[in-house]
Amino acid sequence: MKVLDLQCAHQHVFEGWFASEADFLGQCERGLVTCPMCGDASITKMMSAPRLNLSSARAEASVPQDVVETAEPEQALQTAWMAVARRILAKTDDVGTRFAEEARKIHYGEVKERGIRGKASREETESLIDEGIAVMPFPLPEALKGQLQ
Fold first, then answer.
1. Residue 63 pLDDT > 50
2. Domain coordinates in residue numbering, the chain
3. How many CB atoms lie within 10 A of CB 85?
4. Band (149; pLDDT cuts 50, 70, 90)
5. Does residue 125 sit in helix, strand or coil?
6. pTM for this structure?
7. What is the DSSP letter of 57?
8. What single-letter DSSP state applies at residue 66?
9. Which of 65, 84, 135, 138 is 20 to 30 Å from 124 by CA-CA measure?
10. Where are the beta strands (DSSP E) in 33-79?
11. How high is the mean pLDDT of the chain?
């Protein structure tokens, strides 16, 4: 099993596990490898050192401090964003393209108040805001829309 450090065109860094290099390349060619943050299929393999467990008394690898300072906040931000996205999925009902209609029904008391998510055009969103209905765009990563392994 090969564990690869990958990056999308938007600089999101993530890890992928593949049976071999050929498996990774084949999945990329078929568009099966996408960024879990934004769904981008323009994936590049980053340089990474192999991990070898040669003894129990191995020396700690030294990582330059500037790499640690820039990598950790970005990873922490991605992790927090994914946690918020998962919480939104768990706590809301997906109403799909009926979002504007459902938001109005909730706002005007026609149906029980609940958290919803869905799709609305720019015009529909602006109309909801003009009516005083609070809405917030929050793009969900494609990886969270289906079953996670």
1. no
2. 1-46, 93-135
3. 19
4. very low
5. helix
6. 0.52
7. S
8. H
9. 84
10. 43-45
11. 80
DSSP 77-107: HHHHHHHHHHHHHHHSEEEETTHHHHHHHHH
Nearest Cα neighbor of 38 from 117, 139, 146 is 139
- Taking Cα atoms as reference points, which of 113, 115, 57, 109 lies closest to residue 89? 115
Q: In what order do the strands lie in the sheet with 2-8?
A: 13-18, 2-8, 43-45
| Angle separating helix axes 122-130 and 99-107, nearest 10 degrees | 10
Asked if 18 contacts 4 with a C-beta cutoff of 8 angstroms, the reply is yes
Task: Kindly state the tokens that stand for 36.
Answer: 């879990």
pLDDT at 145: 63
> Cα(60)–Cα(62) distance, rounded to whole angstroms?
6
Collect all residues with Cβ–Cβ distance below 8 Å to 2 and sequence separation of at least 6.
17, 18, 19, 20, 21, 23, 24
Asked whether the predicted pLDDT for residue 56 surpasses 70, the reply is no
| DSSP E strand stretches across the chain | 2-8, 13-18, 43-45, 93-96, 116-118
